[in-house]
């Protein structure tokens, strides 16, 4: 039996049992058998969720880039490591082999050193999805610098806040970026941000769109000539297992963004292990995750997890709608993608379009489909299963967080039978529990509560950069001795987990706890509905009432609105009960979304409650204009 590659359900249960009974031995075997170390550990795990302090493989020394690059050179030197698919479909894909990637990372690492960057320094990366983005993460890791990637859709203010929070010495960016038919002036945004960032000493600029940009003398340098001059080899810095690898910001429910800090050995082992199992990865596969490396999904499952397994990972610069809504499927066909991993929001958007855009492509190379980022509703799940997977591809609904570093609850394809909208079972090493609001563990199945994890897994974030107290308060205080995820979940009769959404999305109506996700699921099943979001607003008698924001499909646009409202409420009554009926329904052209596709319920809640004066920061939204439209047509 191999702990590292689970192939059937019985094996899953055996491996899972072992991982819980003797977690140290379990992870130690994986660490020994599948990774290269400069020095072995003194202790596999020490932990204290009260302090909180978590250490995995303390005393070990390694460099993650040797595990992702150098060790593959003898056997996979000529294999494609990164398959870059540009924004422009006629632009030609680039196949970057492991040998080339190694060389580019080494040159880049030398450039960083020549610019005075060393171990422990923070480097902010603000790049579009071009190969230099992957190179720059790995170059930082090569020399022990801590990367902090900021998604290249964030504004100058969001960027400067993140640069200053971690005191980055350097920014890596590009002259601009492509986004569908548009170009974006990234360097202009960096220039604006840097007016408020006195700590930044240098800026490296990759050329992408070839426009004339301002280069600040003494501070800004074109990347390409520096790479050409640099040595093609760079010894990997020796890192301690618990040395920081990167910071990644995630928004909290209040206050400034939290810089989640991930460290080296545990993160490497866990992302590699979960990649291998959840995607049942095999040597000849072509794996594609459509996320942006600006999010944790891209860090763990475009860069580190796949490369640690010697995989071919597709990097896509474009958007799903350019040149048309068939682009994803065109790319799958073109590169014969075997695993495809995306977000429910993308699936819903694509499902709204003509099926012709799917059917004109040969998707027979696909073996496994994945989703991440939010609960997937039943309708989207079936569309994905029927039309993309042709009912042949298991769907892995992977639940995890920036804070968890890797997937925690997910089916293992061909082992765990899938169930629509369920993330199913915990991965080996993960010990979830459901808690009631009084802090009692809910035993047994057919129950629901707040999702906590009661034992550390290797890739849990170790702190919030510069604010350990906030780390403790946010994750370890609600239920002492447990990591609190902030999510609610239910456990069905066989022990499968279904994530019901953020706990703060629970609305109590007349004393009944209603999660927004199941109501939205019910509404979305109406044939005229494309997407919906439910929030609560204060109500004299019920405490809270429900307000639904609904996007119609094209076939619903001409329908009588009052009839539609009645039908929608009937759907809810049928699926959940009359208690969950909506008091107000507003048909909207779009929903305010974060750049990663999450609905900003905070804003919808304010609109529903008529608190229009204080909408908070909308600058990080993907589509801020939609907010004004919604306000204008408020019910
Ligand atoms: C990886 C990522 C984390 C939050 C998480 C939860 C939601 C993620 C989900 C899911 C239901 C899934 N979430 N995956 N909800 N089913 N499969 O998305 O990280 O951006 O930090 O978001 O996303 O609410 O707590 P992050």
Automatic annotation (TrEMBL):
<dbReference type="InterPro" id="IPR032387">
    <property type="entry name" value="ACAS_N"/>
</dbReference>
<dbReference type="InterPro" id="IPR045851">
    <property type="entry name" value="AMP-bd_C_sf"/>
</dbReference>
<dbReference type="Pfam" id="PF16177">
    <property type="entry name" value="ACAS_N"/>
</dbReference>
<feature type="domain" description="AMP-binding enzyme C-terminal">
    <location>
        <begin position="519"/>
        <end position="598"/>
    </location>
</feature>
<dbReference type="GO" id="GO:0019427">
    <property type="term" value="P:acetyl-CoA biosynthetic process from acetate"/>
</dbReference>
<protein>
    <recommendedName>
        <fullName>Acetate--CoA ligase</fullName>
        <ecNumber>6.2.1.1</ecNumber>
    </recommendedName>
</protein>
<dbReference type="Pfam" id="PF13193">
    <property type="entry name" value="AMP-binding_C"/>
</dbReference>
<feature type="domain" description="AMP-dependent synthetase/ligase">
    <location>
        <begin position="72"/>
        <end position="456"/>
    </location>
</feature>
<comment type="similarity">
    <text>Belongs to the ATP-dependent AMP-binding enzyme family.</text>
</comment>
<feature type="domain" description="Acetyl-coenzyme A synthetase N-terminal">
    <location>
        <begin position="12"/>
        <end position="68"/>
    </location>
</feature>
<dbReference type="InterPro" id="IPR000873">
    <property type="entry name" value="AMP-dep_synth/lig_dom"/>
</dbReference>
<dbReference type="Pfam" id="PF00501">
    <property type="entry name" value="AMP-binding"/>
</dbReference>
<dbReference type="InterPro" id="IPR025110">
    <property type="entry name" value="AMP-bd_C"/>
</dbReference>
<keyword id="KW-0436">Ligase</keyword>
<keyword id="KW-0007">Acetylation</keyword>
<dbReference type="InterPro" id="IPR042099">
    <property type="entry name" value="ANL_N_sf"/>
</dbReference>
<dbReference type="InterPro" id="IPR020845">
    <property type="entry name" value="AMP-binding_CS"/>
</dbReference>
<keyword id="KW-0067">ATP-binding</keyword>
<dbReference type="GO" id="GO:0005524">
    <property type="term" value="F:ATP binding"/>
</dbReference>
<keyword id="KW-0547">Nucleotide-binding</keyword>
<dbReference type="GO" id="GO:0003987">
    <property type="term" value="F:acetate-CoA ligase activity"/>
</dbReference>
<dbReference type="InterPro" id="IPR011904">
    <property type="entry name" value="Ac_CoA_lig"/>
</dbReference>
<dbReference type="GO" id="GO:0016208">
    <property type="term" value="F:AMP binding"/>
</dbReference>
<dbReference type="GO" id="GO:0005829">
    <property type="term" value="C:cytosol"/>
</dbReference>
């Amino acid at each position: 039996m191999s702990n590292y590659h689970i192939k059937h359900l019985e094996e899953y249960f055996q491996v899972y049992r072992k991982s819980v009974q003797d977690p140290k031995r379990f992870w130690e075997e994986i660490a020994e058998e599948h990774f290269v170390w400069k020095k072995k550990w003194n202790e596999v795990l020490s932990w204290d969720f009260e302090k909180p302090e978590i250490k995995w493989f303390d005393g070990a020394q390694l460099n993650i880039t040797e595990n992702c690059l150098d060790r593959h050179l003898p056997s996979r030197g000529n294999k494609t490591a990164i398959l870059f698919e540009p924004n422009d479909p006629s632009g030609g894909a680039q196949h970057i082999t492991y040998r080339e990637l190694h060389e580019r990372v080494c040159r880049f690492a030398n450039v960083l050193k020549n610019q005075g960057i060393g171990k422990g320094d923070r480097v902010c990366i603000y790049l579009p999805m071009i190969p230099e983005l992957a190179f720059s993460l790995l170059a930082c890791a090569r020399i022990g610098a801590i990367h902090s990637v900021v998604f290249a859709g964030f504004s100058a203010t969001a960027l400067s806040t993140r640069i200053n929070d971690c005191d980055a010495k350097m920014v890596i960016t590009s002259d601009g970026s492509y986004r569908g038919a548009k170009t974006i002036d990234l360097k202009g945004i960096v220039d604006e941000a840097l007016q408020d960032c006195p700590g930044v000493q240098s800026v490296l600029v990759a050329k992408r769109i070839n426009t004339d940009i301002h280069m600040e003398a003494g501070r800004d340098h074109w990347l390409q000539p520096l790479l050409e001059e640099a040595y093609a080899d760079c010894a990997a810095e020796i890192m301690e297992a618990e040395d920081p690898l990167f910071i990644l910001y995630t928004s909290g429910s209040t206050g400034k963004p939290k810089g989640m800090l991930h460290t080296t050995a545990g993160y490497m082992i866990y992302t590699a292990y979960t990649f291998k199992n959840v995607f049942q990865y095999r040597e000849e596969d072509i794996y594609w995750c459509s996320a942006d490396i600006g999010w944790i999904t891209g860090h763990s499952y475009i860069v580190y997890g796949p490369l640690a397994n010697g995989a071919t990972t597709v990097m896509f610069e474009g958007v799903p709608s350019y040149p048309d809504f068939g682009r994803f499927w065109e790319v799958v066909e073109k590169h014969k993608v075997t695993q495809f991993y995306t977000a429910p929001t993308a699936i819903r958007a694509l499902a709204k379009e003509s099926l012709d855009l799917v059917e004109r492509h040969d998707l027979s190379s696909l073996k496994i489909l994945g989703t991440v980022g939010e609960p997937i509703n039943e309708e989207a799940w079936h569309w994905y299963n029927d039309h993309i997977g042709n009912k042949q591809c298991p769907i892995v609904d992977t639940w995890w967080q920036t804070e968890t570093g890797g997937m925690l609850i997910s089916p293992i394809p061909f082992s765990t039978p899938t169930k629509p909208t369920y993330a199913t079972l915990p991965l080996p090493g993960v010990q979830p529990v459901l808690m009631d609001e009084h802090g009692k563990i809910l035993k047994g199945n057919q129950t629901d509560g707040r999702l906590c994890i009661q034992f550390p897994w290797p890739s849990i974030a170790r702190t919030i950069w510069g604010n350990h107290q906030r780390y403790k308060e946010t994750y370890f205080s609600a239920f002492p001795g447990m990591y609190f995820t902030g999510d609610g979940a239910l456990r069905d009769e066989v022990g499968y987990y279904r994530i019901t959404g953020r706990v703060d999305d629970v609305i109590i109506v007349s004393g009944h706890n209603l999660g927004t996700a199941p109501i939205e699921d019910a509404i979305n099943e109406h044939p005229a509905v494309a997407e919906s979001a439910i929030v609560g607003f204060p109500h004299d008698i019920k405490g809270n009432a429900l307000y639904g924001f609904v996007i119609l499909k094209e076939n619903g646009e001409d329908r009588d609105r009052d009839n539609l409202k009645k039908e929608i409420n009937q759907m809810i009554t049928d699926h959940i009960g009359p208690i969950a009926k909506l008091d107000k329904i507003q048909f909207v052209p779009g929903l305010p979304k974060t750049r990663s596709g999450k609905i900003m319920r905070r804003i919808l809640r304010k609109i529903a409650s008529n608190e229009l004066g204080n909408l908070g920061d909308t600058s990080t939204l993907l589509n801020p204009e939609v907010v004004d439209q919604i306000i204008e047509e408020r019910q």
